[in-house]
Structure formats: structure tokens, C-alpha cells
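U., I forgot to send this yesterday:
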Amino acid sequence: MPTLPEVRSWNPASLSDAADRLTAADTAFTTETGRVSAKLVDLHHDWTGAAFDAARYRVATECAAAARVSTEVTELARALTDGSRRLHSVREVALAKVAAAESDGCRVGDDWSVSAGSGSTERDAVDAHRWAIGRAVDDLVREDGEVTRLVEDAAQQVRARGDQVGDGADLSRPAEEGAARLGREDGEALAAAAAHGDDAALSRIAEQLPAQVLTPSELTSLAAGDEVSTVPQSVRDYYTELYRAAGKDGVLALGDHLKAQEVAGNPGAGRALNSVANGLMLVSNEKVSSGRNPDGSLRSPGSYANLPANLRELVSTRTNGPDKNATTYPGTGQLADQTRFFEDTRRFGALAKEAEPGYLPGVELSREMTRQAASLGIPGGVSAFTGHPGFTVGTESVEQSMRDYLEVSGRNHEATTQLLTGHGSPDQPLDGGYSPVKTIAPLLRYDWSEDQGAPALFDWIGEHATPGPEVSVAQSEQAGSAATGLIRLITEGGVDGQIGTFESLMNLPDSDDRSLGSLNPALTQQVAGAVTPYLDAIAIAPDSEVTTHGFSRAEALGPNADIGAIRLATLMNTDPTASAAFNGAIVDRTNDYAGRFGELHGETSWDRNALGQASGRLLGYMEQGLRAEAYDGGLDDAAAEAKAAGSTKLAVEVATKIGVGVGGPLATPLDVASSFVQQGIEPEYAPLHKEAFAVDADGLAAQRAYRMLAAVTAKEPGLLESAFGGESHSWLQDGRLRAFDEIMTLDNRASQGSKLQSAAEELLDRAGLRFERFNDALDTSRGDLSGYTTDADHYRSRILRGER
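Result:
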């Protein structure tokens, strides 16, 4: 997106000036071609016969070709003139909105952000200007993209037609065929330039590359997993043939050259570099084409096969780890092949990540890049070194290539889902030997450097879990399927004496038996954010409470679902922040179930018992997971109990922070996880290193009682006034219950919690709602889970190894 200073510097009139120059040049061109034809007519008085007829035919052919060029030039001039008008309009509107905001005392940043100025600008005014500027910028970006594409497409047509003048070309061929031919010629020139180090040729080709521009609506469609059939065919054909003819070496040489030029301060090189990388994404994407067949299917959609064969060989040759498919590197079998392989892998990753946001690689390219990334970093027999054949390779030396590959491949959520579940699609099946254990598990076990943090692998799952204005049901279903595969993978037990994924993540063999959270806290937090939206489904809550789609509890947790759920909770507890997010979400969900129980008062419903049971399951999973993680860390019974108590207390505090009073919005599990994962836990809520805490059972019960009371009194507000003797009671504000956290801060928390629980039970009893109907079901379900971690040995046999 262009910045505000860049837009201020725009001169849309220059497009009209260019159109005028083009029109003048075209007029001169057509005049000259007309003179050639007229001159030939003059010669006919003295020249006859077969030679003259041949000359007349050739001149007629070239004049016809020139006329077609003139037509395309006219279209280009029209595109420039129209673009000048469109950009002038949206630029003026955007700058006018900025001026209006600044005149009201707002500050508008270079990135179009709007904030209050030094004066006392009203918040509503700031919000109004922010909305107005945002709309104007959206229009500006859309128009800029569409104008750029129209001009680039028209310019490509001119070049394709112009190349036909003078060579007696068949004029019946469409211009798109000429674009493919130009791409092939430029690709061959690239290959030659790469072989001979010809920077001048690389610069010449870079200057004539057409831009790869998708409109905002097309980018939105791609992000939603929809098909896009409106990419200009001439541009698409050009890049497809360019890559094929250039081969791996030509493509990488062009990328290196453009990057060097960009670093040197050439802005045009940066745009060309984006176009080259964008093109790699589009020609490989199976959901992108330039039209549809009569049956509605995409015509010649993108494909991994559109990339050069030796580039695909680079990406898909895996010589390390359980997913390896080769024992030698691409090449002639020389030692230099290994050096070239790792260097070219680095170069391709650096080029691919230059693709602009929203440009998605195809499913097959994405899968192959992810599988290669995993293969690159798998340790061999020596610590800190990979298991690649040939000379030793340090795991740190391949990390940047892994990151670059994953940054690109992670954009395609369909591909990630297939790799997590192990199920391809009919059009892009996975090979029979693939398993998530071979690819996803190594990425979880890799020791990512702390200064850069873990790559973003699973954030999108939680973000797409629940349908909404920005998330379709189809995206929610895909996220649910991905979450199913992720949970199944990380909670999987061993078979036939083999160590399962869960046990390996609790005691990583190549990392001094550290746990997942200890080795990769940021990645563990990503997993927490991905799985917490599915707590309702894991708890077997009533259907009315489940807002996600596509998730299968049976597939995710395995044949013994309780063990699977406890394993999931155990892994989340290996990192303090992930633990707070996950357990805080559990407490919040059980509070919501209590509130829902209260809302059902006086109504016919079969969900009351299920709400209590779901609460008990979640609390049982939380308690067993906390104890399991403590035992895995080598703590004795007393220390394990103390640590679990401290974490429970923190979870209660987290849920308190996200709970709100009646009438306000209730946080969803996704809200809970994203808030505490992204923002971190406030210092006063992170004393997990202190092992001496008393379990605040009253805090849990008080929150549930509060939610239930709030729900009932929302339907029967008179119940509060009669009980508290009017609105003057400290627990009330405007006749309604204050927020839970406000009530708890009025006095000692333990005392207030006990009072609140007692008062709620009494008031609910007056209203005819039996509090114990909820608590009895909760206690029974929670009690059924109490035997899984009675001591350390029990944990290791039942949870860690899954023994009977």
C-alpha cells in the first residue's frame, strides 16, 4: 500500500502526458507505413510480375501488422488517459479526507493512521476520520491496482504485436501467443545471461517485465480459498514461458540481480522483484487462471508443473530425515552438488518471500516447500548438525532457508491442512508414504532461534475457527480440520513399543529432554491459540455452545479421548503463557456454561445436565494436565500439587480479567487465547515459579455462581433489589450486578468470593433454580478423571506412554 507521502508526490497528469506522446508517435508511425504502401503503388508503373506481387503481399502484410500495433497503441493511450482520470479522482478524495482530519486537530501518520492531536480531539471525531480515511485509502489502493494492471496488460499487447512487425508473422494469431513467445525469448536470454554473468542483459530484461498485480477483490478471493479466473492471459503466459525457458539458474540470477539493485537504491528493481516472485506464486496456483471452460471449470489453471523442472527438483529433493526421497543431490554426483543445493535453496527462499502479501503459492508448491523445510533442519547423529549426506551441515546454517520456505508455504492454508491431516485432495493427492509425523513433528521439535522467534505455522487456525464477517463457513471448516490433525499429531501415543509424538514433545531427545514449551514457547503459544476455540467440542458441550465447524473430537483425541485431552492440556502447560491462555479459556468456558444454565431457568431444555458435565470434563482435563506436567518435570507429590495450585490460581485470575458484567460482550475462547498469547500475561499474574499456593477452589465456584446469578437476574431484575434492599448495595450499579472483578476488589478476594457464592446460591434458590443440579453433574464428570495422575508413576504409564 502506498504511503501518504508517496500519494502526495503522485502526478496522475503524467499518465495523460504519456498518452499524448504515444498518440503523437502512433500518428507519425501510421503516416510512415502509409507512405510505404503509397510508394509501392508508384513503383507499379515500372515494376510488374511475380517479384512485384511478392513485394506487394509482403508490404500489405507488414502494413496490416503495423495497423494492429496502432490499434494496441490506441488502447494503451486510452488506458493511460482513463488511469490518469481515475487516479486523480481517488487521490483528491483521499487527500481531502486527510486535510479534514488535520483541520479537526487529528494527526495522520505516513501509514494513514489517525490519532488525536495535541488538542482535545473527541474520540468519536478521531474514529469518524479514521473510518473515512480508511474507506478512501481502500478505494485508492483498488484503483491503483486496477489501473496498473490495465496499463501493463495493454503495454504487453503492444510489445507482442510490435514484435510481429517486420518478420512476416501470421497475423491471425492472438496477441496472447505473442506474449508467450516474448516470455520464452526473454527466458532464453535470462538463461544465457546467468551462464555468462551478463548484468546488462539481466537489467534489460528486468526493465521490460510486466507487473503482476491482483486487485483487492482477487486477493480476498484467494485468501478465502476461492478461484480467481480474471488474471490477464498475456501477462500470465509471459511469465509461465519466462520461467520455463530461464530455468532455475536464470530465475535465481534475475532474483539476485534485482535484489542487489534494490539494495543499491533502485526502486524500480524492488517492484520488478515483487513481480517475479508474485509470478511464481500465480503460475503455480491451481486456483488461478485467465478464464473458464464452458462447463465452468478453470481454463489452464496454474500448476507446480509450470515451474522449471530443475527448480522443482531443487524444492522437492529431500535427502535428510524420515521424509527423504533421495540419497544424492541434483546434479552430476559431485561434491559441488551439495554446495550448490544449499546455496540455491537459500536463493530460492529469499526470492519467493519477496512475493507480496496475499499472493499464495499453489497447493503442491506449498506442500513441497514445507516438506523441504522440515527435512532441512532434522538433526543427524551429531548434535547441532543435520543428517544430510556429504559434508556436515549445521542446523543453524539452514534455519533462514527453513524460515523463508515456511513464510511462503504457510500462506496456503489448504496445503497446511492437508499436511496436518495427511489427506490430500483428488486433484493433488499426497504420496502414500507421507505422514504428519515426518514433516510437522520435526518443525515442532526444531530449536528455533530466540531472537527471531518461531515461524507462524498455526496462528490462522484459531483466527478462522469461528465464522464471522471476515471468516466464511468454508474457512471455518478448513480450520476445524486443521485443528483436528494438529491435536491428533501432538497427542499421539506410541505403537509397538515406539515413542509416540506426545512423549517425544514432552521429552525432546535431541534437546536434553526439554519439553515443547521449554524449547519453543512461541510455537506452543501458537498451538494454544489454535486449539482453544475447540474446547466446547472437546468438552462435549451442547450443540448450542459449539460455534466452530469441521472439528472431529473422535479423530483429534483418538480412541481414549480423555487421555488425548489430558495430553493436550499437559503440552499446553509446558509454557507459562500458553498454560495461562489455555487454562484461563477453560475456566471462562465453564463460567459461560454456568451462565447458560442460569439463562435456561424457567425454560424447557435438555441441555442443563450436559452443561454441568461439560464443565466437569474441562476442569478435570485442566487439573490432570497441570499435575501431569508437574510430574513430568520431576516434581514430587507435594511440589506437583503446589505448582498445579499456582497455575489454577493464575487461570482463575485470567478468567476474571476476561469476564464482564451483564450486558457486556462475553469473551470467546479465541478471544482469551489471542489476548494472553499476543499480549502476554501481566507481571502480577505470572508467579508460576513459586511452588507454594493454596488452590483457590472458592474462586472457581464464585465465578460460576456469579455467571449463573447474572444470567437469572438479567431475566428477573427485581430479584436483586428485593435481596439487596435497593440499588445502594456496593455490588450493584444502576440496579445491575457490577462486573465480577469489581465485586472481588471491594474486599479481601477470598472473603468476597465466599460471600458471592453464598449469596448467589441463596438468591438462585429463591428463584427456584437448584444450583446443585449443575454442580453435581460437574463434580461427577471431574471426579471420573481424577485417577489418571494420582502419582508420577501413574502419569508415566497412563498418560505419557498410554499403558493400561
